[in-house]
Amino acid sequence: MSGVRPGFAPDPGVAELLAARPFLSADPVAGLLAEGVPLNAIADEAGTPAWVISAGTLRARARRLKAAMSAADLDVAAHYAVKANDHQAVLHILAAEGFGADVVSGGELARVRAAGIPAAKVIFSGVGKTDAEMDLALREGISQFNVESAEELDILSGRAVAAGCEARVALRINPDVDAGTHEKITTGVAGNKFGIPFEEALALYRRAHGLAGIRAVGFAMHIGSQILSPAPFRAAWARLAMLIREARAQGLAVEVADCGGGLGISYRDETEGSPEALAGALRRELGDCGVRLAIEPGRWIAAPAGILLSTVILRKAVAGGAPFIVLDAAMNDLARPSLYDAWHGLVPLAPHLLRSSVTEGAHLVGPVCETGDTFARDRRLPALARGDRVALLDAGAYGSVMSSTYNSRPLAVQVLVDGDRRAVIRPRQATEALWAEEYVPEWLSSRPE
Ligand SMILES: *Cc1c(COP(=O)(O)O)cnc(C)c1O
């Protein structure tokens, strides 16, 4: 049985977690498998902490999203939100599925171009694009800038004129709709930094149509992340449709409605956001607007495809309380629990632990010198001993991309599994690489006699 906290449903147990994650399975001999690959073999070869990403899961989810759109008779351009997981291998897989990219920096733009995603399939989002980033995107000829303020529109106009080209622009509108998600990942309510206030949208769109170097193509919205119900999407897109009608009534052409990302997944026991419901909402609110639709999913595609493998360094007993299980992964690897109080499933790798029906309550923590370096409190798991390995689930999005080297901890190795195949797609960072680019000025390096 799983642990019961007062007022909460019990945490899902190992069997429930695995049942909801088809690429993971418990083999009676090899232990936990990702697709056809024993995770113990990866940990033996590559060490821990180690990120593992499932190519099959990325493909399956990309296909399910596209199929949901087709089934609703919608022609929707899917632009993967690169910030969720920007590894070249991930981008290659999604590019092969026909996905374009939504980028938020010049670095991400260069990255997706390196992965072979054509500029004509790239949207550039973000509240503060530097001149250099705008110039790069103009040179590359990306398909769309999502502009978030009047000030940015003027700057982009100037850069485009100077470069002798035209920027295709969608205005990102803040619809003032509460996505009902964590406050740090809500982006579409009045008072946060994102987008143009709804009331100012039309006037600015009119001005955009007259600006040199700008071709105003439509509107964009992105209301937040980890959204599980279609209701906030529908509320936002209803406002988007209203804006499109009003713009056209004023004689302003609208070609594009970019509906953003934000579809959520099941980390614990939530009902996962449904692509079919998303498609239904799109069709209902925007289906008859006669615009090209775009979406920008990140988390929904990548999060369930990735896990973080870790080894128990030691068990620290606590008199009269739950023990601390100290892992070799930490908040510098996976920051979400410390940043957002995120719940991540934990599953042991060894066959005897996967079979075990005896559980204990424990706190799972990393070794970093911060109290926030805690992955789980009072989690019921089979009793873990020094040397046992666990997988932290649903770490494929906003996981490795948020890693740092805090506490001089090298970036963890990354491994791709694809059917029975596995490959290291980024080696563990060498310890010396941590300071290899640091210089000590010569006046400090000459020691006094
Ligand atoms: C982060 C982001 C996304 C992706 O959000 P998910 O919740 O990962 O789907 C899409 N569009 C924009 C503009 C973003 O900033």
Compact summary:
With 449 residues, the protein is of the alpha/beta class. Helix content is 30%, strand content 23%. Helix 3 (55-71) packs parallel to helix 10 (275-286) and helix 8 crosses helix 9.
How would you sum up this structure, described in words?
30% of the residues lie in helices and 23% in strands. It has 14 helices and 21 strands. Strands 4, 14, 15, 16, 17, 18, 19, 20 and 21 form a nine-stranded mixed sheet that branches. It has an eight-stranded parallel beta barrel with strand order 5-6-7-8-9-11-12-13, surrounded by five helices. Helix 3 runs parallel beside helix 10 and helix 9 packs parallel to helix 10 (275-286). The longest helix has 20 residues, at 230-249. The radius of gyration is 24 Å and the shape is globular. It binds pyridoxal-5'-phosphate.
Largest sheet: 9 strands, mixed
The portion of residues forming beta strands comes to 15-25%
N/C terminus separation: 68 Å
Q: Bound compounds, please?
A: pyridoxal-5'-phosphate
